[in-house]
Fold each of these.
Amino acid sequence: MKNKDFLSISDLTPERLRSLITQAVGMKAEGWNSLLGEKILVLMFEKPSTRTRVSFEVGMRQLGGECIYLSPEEVGLGKRESTADVARVLSRYADAIASRTFYHETLEILANNADVPVINALSNLEHPCQALADILTIYEHKQTLQGLTLAYIGDGNNTANSLLLACAMCGINFQIASPEGYEIKESILHTAQAYASAIGSEVICVKEPRAAVTNADIIYTDVWVSMGQEAETERRKKAFAGYQVDSVLLAQAKPDAMLMHPLPAHHGEEVAENIIYCQQSAVFDQAENRLHAQKALLADILGGSEIYTGYR
């Protein structure tokens, strides 16, 4: 890792990303250990969460450490107290901070003022912990990464940004179909294209979902309306009409294509009713793998240990 903060997938080198996936595979097989005994992680959330909170809390406990949760009501970053001061204070109590924020700039302020590592548990720009779990899930199902093709259908949001970067680092071709005005952020796209060019994969942006999923090994989608975008609901539903992943679209991909979604899913919107329960779905494997990927990340940041080898 370039530094001990983890705000973006691009804070990793391609080699470190592959190492984390290897470690996650090993830790998933091993279960509990005491690697992070006497370590404390503070979870500081401006947004509520199910998977992110539980996976971090369980992960720290399975590694022998402790977790302290600060709810949105308790935090009040920049309101009750300056973000910089909160970072300085928590650095005196804990060994790391994982923060789920509305704005990526808040994470940057935390990282610039904390004396301990800061982890992005979600921001409006990226969701890098989700991307780690996604790559782990793909590797488990396909037993390889290089040369696969992932079709992303929908909003070029924080999840898409991190997943694109991770895929480009791992040699996975990334084909995204988004309506006009909802494309991947240009700066993220340029960074990913540089990674892809170096490793020999492709990044392709199209408008038509069928063009993206043709011959894809993985179909991935996410909600049309994320938390904090409720005022845009009707406009977004109109823009994304025709971008639903259903059995017809899934059939355009390879016969053994896997379906992925980071959850929570809005059934009947971005995914057809019940499709995430189909045989091709890896959705709940993704959810479980948040735990194992984050354990590998925490061990790397707080334990500094590269325990597992054998990634291929």
Amino acid sequence: MCFSGFVCACRVDNGISGGKPTPVHPREGDELLTALGRALVEGSLTDESLLSETVTEPVVQILPRANVIKVGGQSFIDRGRVAVLPFIEEVIANLGRHEMIIGTGAGTRARHAYSVGLDLGLPTGVLSVLGTYVSMQNARMLHYLLADRGIPFIEPAGFAQLPLYLAERGAVVFFGMPPYTYWQRNPAVGRIPPHRTDTGAYLVSEVFGCRSMIYLKDERGLFTADPKKDPDAKFIPRVTVAELAEMDLDDVVVERAVLELMANAQNRREVQVINGLVPGNLTRALEGEHVGTIITSE
């Protein structure tokens, strides 16, 4: 049976073939598949030599003017109005000047949920679900504070409308936790989900080919040690992923999964970590200034 709007690739020979569809073979030169398309159809998607042929065309940057801003949960949002309200004012001041995709961290409440879940023996994928909802709470709070400006809150299902929201309102708010939930990969050590809100925000910037990826923390950027605990910790203004691996630091300022993803990035090969508690730092970073630590993939 042929349905309206679709091309039927068969022919019915009434009285000749008993009414059964007879395939119509495309004429020579009518094939729609490219050489790569035919190779993908006929080959195996685990064949590395075939996969290497899939990077011949440049990747489209879907939102090249947008800036992804990840607002730390424990380092920033958990501080309440002293940190959040100045941030809201700075976002409003940049509306019309910069497109902003604002992602939220989960913070202390997620750590409490993780601790209870671990005590109950819950697996990593379930812990990821718990962290997702805490991150969502923080996103909704920022959304409500920006609601009078028409800034929407979006969930993963709403990302198809992201270009429209940015064109109309100039900014959106989303929860940074990537939607892996039960499909979260188990970490090499322990059971805490390895892909959390830093990773989710980074993936948005990479997939959409955004202009920048800015992490708002409560420190200047990356240090050789936690500056809150070690007064001798030295600030690192710029570093590559390879150099970080050689340093083998006990603690880094972003999730290690981000550094792993940057190694194979096609669009977002640089991120900046800044102290969002300093007034004007966000605006300077949006303008392209170096105000914190810049981490590059090479």
Amino acid sequence: MALAYKTALITGASSGLGRGLAVWFAKQGVTVYAAARRTAALESLREEAGELIKPLTLDVAKADQTHERITALDAECGGLDLVIANAGIGTLTNGKRIEWPAVKNIIDVNVSGALATLCAPLPGMVKRGRGHLVGVSSLASRIPAPRLSTYCASKTFLSMWLDSLRLDVEKLGVSVTTLQPGYVKSEMTAQNKPGQMPFILETDDAVERMGKAIVRRAKLHSFPWQISASIGLANMLPKSLMAKIVNKMT
């Protein structure tokens, strides 16, 4: 399948969904700038997927440096066609014993890092009249959860930012996609108990769904449908009742 993209940048590419997406696009002939903090993991990714993988050591928690580096890369490669802000962390932030460093770290990565990643190539895309920005949010953006206040809020911020950005740039030729996966087997979910993760997906399955949604330039893709639909129904309930159900489930 020949894709419209010649170049792509994917953050969080050292493991999980980011690594899977890097392999998925490289196999289809896209030059992928695979970005993450762990250089050794990126080198092993290139060995696995071939020379179309271009390792890029990058810490998105350092938002200013991230914006500067991706802006430079956009100029160096003649314009990035696709940018996927995938890097994210899901540390618990229990309100009973809240710790500011943990809260700040989530915001630095999931909000500031994601927006720095997406803002950097945007002026070039607008000028060229083409491009595709993708943000990996979460179904957690659509419902509150105990001990995950900061994570849920960070993903809600990203989803709303992408939806609003789309109104500005879609008419200029720039596509914007919001991805909202549910539970996926990864380093981040490995710490959870199996019973806490209904309808959990294998990484390859989730990557395939996300890749296809990106290629068809979906505005929003939430999956699996069982959880997405359940969240939609839960949000129709009074908040007090919804809170009781969520607390019981988690």
Amino acid sequence: MARTALLAGSTGLIGGQLLALLLDDNRYTNVVAISRKPLTAHPKLVNLVCELRDLPYHREQLKADDAFCCLGTTIKKAKSKEAFRAVDLDAPFLLAKISKEQGAQKFLLVSALGANKNSGIFYNKVKGEVEGAIQNVGFHSYYIFRPSLLLGPRQEERTGEDAAKFFYKVFGFLVPKKYRAIESIKVARAMLAFAQAEHKGNFIYESDELQSC
């Protein structure tokens, strides 16, 4: 049966790769991708160009069977904790609520290794908070993916991450599997694969479980 996918974060590392997979998947006839700037045209692509805070004004365009959220930023890029929370907590929660109201049955969220609402680390705390907030929305199936350090072709430079990537390439075999860096395409593939599952409930997949995708 023909399905529609909804994707937020389509210009990010995982989101960009997931968008290509969705557009190439015959199980989806339409892919609604949210972005701040226009995306490259495709026969199956419905590109909603808007700010994330304006999603309530586009409810009718957010109808889908499966909603994928790959939103995420850094404190350095966001420039403040409030701006970080707006992208990593407020926007995903808003997307979840609206997509559920519009009929979505599945929600698939990219979170992060170490996500915990009780963490003393701000990044991990916010990731844990958004996981819990969306859990209460009431989707038929809710999948959380917690990758470790992501490897892949980022558009922007991240000096700290680049140093970490070098370390993993040289000494990665010494690191426990759960904490090893992971190729972003593996996370994208896992999201697409689990979107086709018929599971009911809430599911969390740690980074080591995604390494084989």
